[in-house]
Prior knowledge:
Layout: H1 2-17, H2 23-30, H3 36-64, H4 66-87, H5 93-125, H6 130-158, H7 161-181, H8 190-211
Helix pairs in contact: 1-5, 1-6, 1-7, 3-5, 4-5, 4-7, 5-6
Amino acid sequence: MLAALLICEFACVCLEMNVSAFLPSFVEATYPSLSALAVGCLMIIFPVGAIATGPFIGSYLETLGRKNAVIIGVVLITLATLCFGFASYFRNAGAFYAASMLARLLQGVGDVFVNIAIPSILILEFPDKKVIYLGYCSFCAGAGLFLGPVIGSVVYSLLDYTKTFYFFAVFIGSIGGTCIYFIPSRVNQKQNSQNINNLSELSGPKMKISYR
Length: 212
């Protein structure tokens, strides 16, 4: 399960910055009416989506379930990446921009689902090694950030803009789906069971004290 969580983290984070390798040049060549500021806003809408939804997702993660959150995140990122590819079929710059903004926003929301749920699972499933494994998780996230643009530029050089997003949709969908398969469903209720155990441990001494 550890490997599945770390690989899933890497794959999802790869899509955070991969578009930076080819999106600006594509927009400049295909939609010259879009300014550099518009492209910059298209890039930053990703963290805006994450910032706007992160506190909400974190507050309801226990109710939603950790594995379920990973599933939602992977599905959102996959669909958003497909939407990015479909946007290139629009000849109108405004339509392309609106579809791309929506896709980039959904990528950010999906990413925050994954980035909240996976560290939470690591902490609950591996309490004795949680600091070490959180370090591994940060390493995978960092590797995804700097390898994402590299992979993106290589794929873009071999395929066109649209097919590059189709490639990454298959990339995240297949890797994420495989990793999810190895995440046990018990992580959805892990915190509740731990709380019960903790309450039992706390109530034991109290009962003994009351009988003395």
